[in-house]
Design a protein that fits this description.
Number of strands of chain B: 0
Largest sheet of chain A: none
Low-confidence stretches of chain B: 1-10, 106-123
Radius of gyration of chain A: 28 Å
Structural class of chain A: mainly alpha
Oligomer: heterodimer
Number of helices of chain A: 10
Structural class of chain B: mainly alpha
Largest interface: A-B, 53 and 59 residues
Largest sheet of chain B: none
Strand content of chain B: under 5%
Shape of chain B: elongated
Distance between the termini of chain A: 77 Å
Strand content of chain A: under 5%
Order of helices and strands of chain A: HHHHHHHHHH
Radius of gyration of chain B: 20 Å
Distance between the termini of chain B: 43 Å
Number of strands of chain A: 0
Helix content of chain A: 55-70%
Low-confidence stretches of chain A: 78-94, 111-128
Chain lengths: 210, 202
């Protein structure tokens, strides 16, 4: 058996079906024994790639909205409580985040103005002000947590970025279909998500100061 | 610890959640999602190598699952059912994008046939007993989609060749042969990476 023949049969060898001829070649060929060692190593190390990654909270929010839209969820809408939110304290609200949420709600649900001849859909169109990638409020929050360990600061930055991204997606959905209550609910959920990030940042900061 | 083995919120068991989800209970849907989201997302991430695609596919997998939850009778474990569905969603997506589920041999045959011959006299270029996980992950991400699919399904996820053949729609022999070529390709990538490092140092 030569090297090429050995390599062609190597997959069977790795599956545990070795022949005496293959074994004999392996004993006499350092290149093929090296190849076998490497491939076995790659195969055995592959299980180390079975890591567990945390998906974005946006997935559940979009999924829930879709499930409601399709009628798979058949109960009245409740406040969204993604897995990790339940441990967040709800002692008091961060004023700026609350204001943001209220502003979004007012914009979203404001009644038609008297004398306005626009169709209803148009009156409800602009859901909320477009959220810039990094707003002044976000900067304030990041300044609040700046003294915390770098990993936590990075986590806050990431959470804020995700919340902003979710808000932009929801705004787009409302813009596309202003009368869709699920898109409106998604936007409110997005603002709630951002509000929670603000609240967590300030709560933890207060705990540190006590 | 897998997601499914974590303590369950409000003592609602997975079985109870499945039954309540069939009735349209939002909390039950969310519990099922929370129990399995990490495993499904991680699978999608490994198979696509792309965060945005993995998020979309995770959502799609759960959506398909929840649409069919009324038909779940418990013959197999819920997690197995969901995992298989997630794999199918990813494979379907690859098909939609016209990415080959099984690698096209013609493009790589030549270089692979010479693998052993290039090795002669180069025993010192072995991977030397250990592979850094990050390097391996990077190499897997660099694999052509068809190779990555087979490698991830077999060596990472632990599916058997007959299962892979059924999922992808190829013969068992083909699955075996493509896995072998995927490993060879990975070896080349890892060795190239190591050679690059050595060159930088010198």
């Amino acid at each position: 058996m030569n090297c090429l023949q050995f390599e062609n049969a190597l997959s069977d060898y790795l599956e545990g079906a070795a022949t005496s001829e293959q074994q004999a070649h392996l004993n006499s060929c350092s290149a093929c024994s090296g190849l076998l060692a490497d491939l076995s190593l790659i195969s055995s190390e592959a299980s180390s790639l079975r890591t567990i990654d945390e998906p974005s909270v946006r997935i559940w929010n979009s999924l829930e909205a879709q499930l409601r839209k399709e009628g798979l969820i058949r109960e009245p809408s409740r406040p969204s409580q993604p897995g990790f939110f339940h441990r967040w304290r709800t002692a008091w609200l961060v004023p700026v985040a609350a204001a943001l949420l209220i502003a979004a709600g007012v914009k979203l649900y404001q009644p038609a103005k008297i004398g306005d001849n626009q169709p209803i859909a148009k009156q409800r169109t602009p859901a909320a002000p477009v959220v810039p990638a990094v707003s002044a409020e976000d900067k304030d929050v990041m300044n609040t947590v700046a003294s915390r360990p770098p990993a936590q600061v990075a986590a806050y930055r990431n959470d804020l970025a995700q919340a902003n991204s979710f808000i932009r997606d929801a705004q787009e959905a409302v813009k596309n279909d202003p009368n869709d209550i699920y898109s409106q609910q998604m936007l409110m959920n997005a603002y709630e998500q951002k509000q929670m990030v603000y609240r967590l940042a300030v709560d933890q900061n207060n705990e540190d100061e006590q | 610890m897998t997601d499914a083995k974590r303590p369950q919120r409000n003592k609602l068991s997975e079985q109870d959640a499945i039954e309540r989800a069939k009735q349209g209970d939002a909390e039950a849907f969310q519990l099922l999602y929370d129990l399995h989201k990490r495993r499904v997302y991680s699978l999608c991430l490994r198979m696509t190598g792309n965060t945005a695609s993995a998020e979309d596919l995770t959502q799609e997998a759960f959506l398909q699952l929840f649409r069919k939850i009324g038909t779940f009778r418990g013959e197999s474990a819920f997690s197995t059912w969901l995992h298989r569905m997630a794999v199918n969603v990813v494979l379907m997506q690859l098909r939609k994008k016209n990415l080959p589920l099984v690698p096209i041999d013609e493009t790589t045959e030549g270089e692979e046939e010479g693998t052993v011959r290039k090795e002669l006299g180069a025993a010192d270029s072995r991977l030397a007993g250990s592979i850094d996980r990050l390097h391996l992950q990077r190499a897997v991400d660099e694999l052509p989609p068809g190779y990555r699919t087979i490698f991830v399904l077999h060596d990472v996820e632990g599916y058997e060749h007959n299962e892979i053949a059924a999922m992808i729609g190829c013969s068992i022999g083909n699955s075996k042969s493509q896995l072998h070529k995927a490993r060879i390709k990975l070896r080349d990538l890892l060795r190239a990476n190591r050679a690059e490092k050595v060159a930088k140092r010198s």
